[in-house]
Amino acid sequence: MQEGKILGYRRINRDLLRGVFENPVKYWAIVLFLGLVVLFAVGAAGFMVNRGIGVTGLNRPVFWGFLITNFVFWIGISHAGVMLSAILRLSKAEWRRPATRAAEVLTIFSLMTAVLMPFIHTGRPWRLMYWVFPYDFSRGIWPDIRSPLVWDPSAVNTYLLSSILFVFIALVPDLAVIRDRSSGIRRIAYSVLSLGWRGTPRQWKLQAIAGILLSALILPVFVSVHSIVSWDFGMAVSVNSWHSTIFAPYFVIGAVHSGVSGVVTVMIFMRWLFGWEEYVRREHIDALGRLLIVIAIAWFYFFAMEFLFGIYGQEGDELATRSLQIFGHPWGWLFLTFIITAFFFPVPLWLFRNVRRSFLWMTITTISVNVGMWLERFIIIVPGLARKQIFTQSWYTYAPSPIEIMIVAGTFALVLMLFLLFAKVFPLIPIFDIKEGQILTDEIKVGRRRVPAVIREE
Amino acid sequence: MATHSVLALYSNAEYAAEAGEALDNAGFSKEDYEFLTDTPYPEGALGERHSSHRLYVFPFVGALIGLTAAILLTSGTQLAYPLVTGGKPILSIPPMAIITYEGTMLGAILFTVIGIIFESRLPTTKKHIYDDRITEGLIGVVVDCDDNTVDRAEQILTQAGAEEVRREAA
Amino acid sequence: MTTTADNNRDRVQITVDGPELNSRMVTEQVSRDFFNVTRNYRWLVAILGSVFVIGIIALILRFLDGFGVSERAQWGYYSAMFAFLLITAGSAPLVAVGLRWTKNHWRRPFSRVSELYAAVGLLTILWFLPLMALLPPLEGRRSLWVSDEFIGVPLWWDFFAVLGLVVCGLTLLVLSAIPDMAVLARHGDDGPRARLLRSISGFWRGSQSQWNYHRIGLTALGAFYFMLLIMVQTMINVDFVMSLVPGWKDSIMPAHQALTGLQTAIGLVLVTTFILRATGRYKDFIPMESFWSFSKILLALCLLWAYFWFAALITFWYGRTPTELNVLSTFMFESYRIPFLLNFFFSFLIPFLILIWNPVRKSVLGPTLAGASVLIGAFFMTIRLYVPAFGIEDVTGHTLKAVQPAILPDVLDIFIILGGLAGAALIYLLASRIFPILSIWEVKEGLLYQRVRPLLRSKFLVLGKPD
Fold it and tell me: Is B119 at the interface with chain A, CB within 8 A?
């Protein structure tokens, strides 16, 4: 499994801090471009606040459209990160080392972006405060904690805070590395951030325990976040195809499917941008590819169960919604695209070792998964709403307005831009983790063969 | 009372571990010296002293605080504004359980992070003897010693194969 | 990988403080226990056999009480026992299958312990036969099969699914054990058992290509078994529980059953291995670390168990349609409150409270107790699901109109359940006399890839990771 060379520490520092200490033109060019897209999106959102949500394609009874779909999508992406790094830390997978930090950072920024979506979607963002936080003492009106829309912020806030702290704790030793390589005001800033880290055995021991303990604590939070997002839908009895008990794990595994794919895409991207050929190697995407096969099949099982039990009820309305999702225009085409891009195109390809070890193919397949998973959320949310509801009495088909499309495009640029800006200040691959991996590498001779081995700490 | 800190830098972990042994043999206690590395060596690999910690208490305390706060918050808001929605009782337990769960986990995680920083004896403002090259792969051995032992310590560290030995007044 | 007995004479440690072992010791210990039938073993077989016979007598009396679709209410506990056998013993081989995929070294001593449970499938399929006459017709009710004109729905599909599962499991067991049987056939005297082993494994020479096919076969059969099991559990669950309750639509329930199966699989394997160790067998080859690794997985599964349960609860609680409220009252909070509480405590709360403590998790007894607890929990889970489902008289329509009263077990039910448990244990014990309970080839293979080596001033376990 381990194909890497043993590298000198000086070389590791230099390579992994390339993002912090060097200023390649392509880096700034990309950031500038992304910044412009974000700017347009901010303009679009501003326009929407100014004119009201009439500028979107929403109308009775479809009140949730592109922005909410995008919210669910980014919450989903945010699940990869911590899940991947936490599970791999707990299972002590050696190949986690170059992936953890990037995955966690992706979590934080996609989560922040996700939170923006319902915020913008309300059209009156400043009022959100009254609905979510219990602080309106003067009027004595309190949020209704029986509403899933109030569960949501409690889970997302917990997850966001926890992931930021998780990343920070694991950053401290690396901040000390930057501190020792810089001077002037920069040195002072990193000295403060690294809290006076020296690398004593006690500090390292707690760092190791922290990685495991925090992973174990964040995993249950991560599961709860997307479950609660799914309950935003699943609690509603009146919208057909939503009220299903399997929604929570189905959303979570879907999130993991799209999120881990997102991490692979991002890892390959940063390998290209920062020239980390020695660190993000074929063995890593191979292992992630194998993990993705398992995740994708598990996801498909939940998808199938959700669908099967939609039909099982044999209720007219439900069957009509299902047939609208699959055969109705335009949902039918979207459904076909979704199921092919999310499952039937990438998964059979991943079965081949050569695909799993090809950076190009892994980029294509993982992006394909995310195209599919975006559509999946769209198909879950909108067709169910488009049919006549008990209280709305009307039919409607939804199409996004340019404003919504601009905002959604802006979120993709935003996440990537924040990710790159992070890389300007902090290393995206944990330096100490890579160095530890080199110490723990060993070899066992079996007959004539040398088998790579790792030293296991307990 | 320690008056001096001596820092020796080794390019090889084996030498650093030897220096530690030599210090043990010369009568220094394990409390008096410390290894500085830029990599987590497996516990016990350098022959360092065993350090105990109470990190596991923190998440439990945090969870308890988070749990209490969340129960008070969820029951308080419902009782303060007793509006029946969707035929669900005031003080509905399943939704309360969700927010209480989040509160508990948040408390546990916040306290764990505080615990990690606290138990690592961070942040420090005190200026310790240190060298920038430690994060480049050199392994440091820091010995706290008084006026009588400082020369002896320097000698031991040098004999173990140090690249460089420095002393500072503590 | 070739692992013949003699190409690896040098001794290795597989735990830092453990004894030095070599592959010859594995073969010797296993063949000694395998051919030596102790007094305790005979006693155990006799006791289990008698309980099993009593169970059969109770079953016959139950048949005399009444049998058929209209009498199905009194067969609820019997069907729960079937589900329990299917969930626990049916899932147990997955421990070997799953951990073999992830190429763990610590799984090695547990593989055969888990695969041997495939033998219990013989009892499961027999136990299923009477159930086929108890299922009401599909007319007028919801079913997984959409239309009742489909050939053989639902019974024959269920039957062949269960049969397929059992056959697949047995094939997996035999295939996995062939190299070990070949080794043992050479070690035993010329008794009938040695002759039997020789006739099954006579073709095995341990050539490179044979090992290759062996590996591929185990992987393929394992994958097949896994898919079959998930499918069987879904089918049985919907046909024998959900579709008997008008209006009950619970998409997570089959997945919850499958999850409970995984939980109990680990529970069964832990308890069985604990008993093996406690009777002084293979202690050196089953280090404490293995229990510890299982405990982490078990903890995660217990949390998932509560999560799946809550996902169903909150959806029904929030939906508040009459069926949903009646289902909650019947299956959880009123009629079957006691089995539900036992289920919840033993499947989640007790193992959770045991396993969150680090020192407990890092022991042999702690994980075993948690494992035993999830077994008890799963037992009450099958009771609180199958008994009420079998007790509902009118299965047609789209709503459950009232909370169903509880049906209590009578003496016959208790003896039938005890007989079933004894029968399962009996089959397991007998099977362990044909297939050695410690997987010789896997443990030997493990000795090739594990070393204890010094790093500077301390010793660590080094694990080889072949591709």
Answer: yes
Please report the residues numbered 123 through 182 in chain A whose beta carbons come closer than 8 angstroms to any beta carbon of chain B.
134, 140-147, 150-151, 154-155, 157-158, 161-162, 165, 168-169, 172-173, 176-177, 180-181
| C9 pLDDT more than 60 | no
Chain A residues with CB under 8 Å of B122 CB are: 172, 195-197, 203
Range of the domain at A198: 9-454
Q: Which of A59-63, B88-92, B101-105, C396-400 has the highest mean pLDDT?
A: B101-105
Confidence of residue A127 (pLDDT cuts 50, 70, 90): confident
Q: Do C249 and A313 touch (CB under 8 A)?
A: yes
CATH number at residue A303: 1.20.1630.10
Q: Determine the residue among B51, B112, B126, B133 to mutate to test chain A binding: the one whose Cβ has the most chain A Cβ atoms within 10 Å.
A: B112
pLDDT at C6 over 80: no
Q: What digits encode the pLDDT tens for the residues C241-280? A: 999 999 899 999 999 999 999 999 999 999 999 999 998 7
Residues of chain B with Cβ-Cβ distance to C318 below 8 Å are: 86, 88, 94
Asked if residue C6 is part of any domain, the answer here is no
C316, part of any domain: yes
Question: In the prediction, which pLDDT does C7 show?
Answer: 47
Average pLDDT score over chain A: 90
Q: Which residues of C240-275 are buried (b: 16+ CB within 10 A; e: fewer)?
A: bbbbbbbbbbbbbbbbbbbbbbbbbbbbbbbbbbbe
Q: Is residue A4 part of a domain?
A: no
Chain C hits for B14, CB-CB cut-off 8 Å, are 456
Q: Which chain B residue lies closest to C461 (C-alpha atoms)?
A: B42
The Cα–Cα gap between A148 and A230 comes to 9
Distance of CA C291 to the CA centre of its chain: 17
- Segment 327-356 of chain A within 8 Å of chain B by CB: none
The CATH class of B4-49+126-169 is: alpha beta
Q: Which helix (H) or strand (E) holds C58?
A: helix C39-65
Enclosing domain of residue C178: 12-463
Amino acid sitting at position B43:
E
Query: pLDDT tens digits for A397-412?
Result: 888 999 999 999 999 9
Q: Helix-strand-coil percent breakdown of chain A, rounded to 5?
A: 75, 5, 25
Number of domains in chain C: 1
Give domain status of residue A148, yes or no. Answer: yes
Size of interface A-C (CB pairs under 8 A): 117
A351 DSSP 8-state letter: T
Rounded mean pLDDT of A241-264? 94
Per-residue tokens: C39: 């007094």
List the single best residue of A149, A223, A233, A245 to mutate versus C (max C Cβ within 10 A): A245
What mean pLDDT is reported for chain C?
A: 91
Q: How many CA atoms lie within 13 A of C424 on its CB side?
A: 24
8 Å CB contact of C465 and A311: no
For chain A, what is the domain count?
1
